[in-house]
Amino acid sequence: MQPPSPLPSALSTCSVLLLAGGRGQRMGGQDKGLLDWHGQPLIAHLHALTRPLSDDLIISCNRNAERYSAYADRVVHDSEGDFPGPLAGIASCLPLLPAGWVLITPVDTPQLPTHLGEQLWQGLMASNSQSRMAVAGMGDDTHWLHMLVHTDLADGLRQRLLAGER
Q: What residues contact 84, with CB distance under 8 A and at least 6 apart?
């Protein structure tokens, strides 16, 4: 594992949000972030990769908060019940964060590229748009849960969630 590269100065104060709020249906109900990978829970790997990128590391989870709290500055539960999906985790966390950029990734990506935030930022800058969100992709595949978003999108995300979008 290589040490994380620093984010560009515009992102030097960004928050990091790790999504760990799922049911674990594909894992027989086990909490994915706590599954062992190379001798440690997945969350430990993500913590090691993302902690150097931010002084504000948040984990969105709906169970095992006491175990996740060892890896985060804050642990946040979805405001909606019954595991409504990753959008609910993001919508619950964004309003609680300081104004600015948030690097978001799911907890089950222990080999996350350490330069993801930097690449997403560079993509935003290269687009010459006023976009407040960048999503990772490779070829024709879009990785919707690997993103850089601005906290001013919180109201719009909440509206989409309330409209039934997941």
A: 78, 161, 166
Residue with structure tokens 């964004």?
94
Q: Are the CB atoms for 86 and 100 separated by under 8 Å?
A: no
Contact between 17 and 23 under an 8 Å Cβ cutoff? The reply is no
Secondary structure class of 4 (helix, strand, coil) = coil
The dihedral sign for the CA sequence 18, 23, 24, 26: negative
- pTM for the full model? 0.83
Strands (E), the chain: 15-20, 36-37, 40-41, 57-61, 74-76, 101-106, 133-138, 141-150
Chain mean pLDDT for the chain: 81
Distances (CA, A) of 79 to 53, 83, 93, 108, 128: 27, 10, 9, 22, 35
Question: What per-residue confidence (pLDDT) applies to 3?
Answer: 40
Please tell me the distance from the alpha carbon of residue 88 to that of residue 121, in angstroms, as a whole number.
Answer: 24
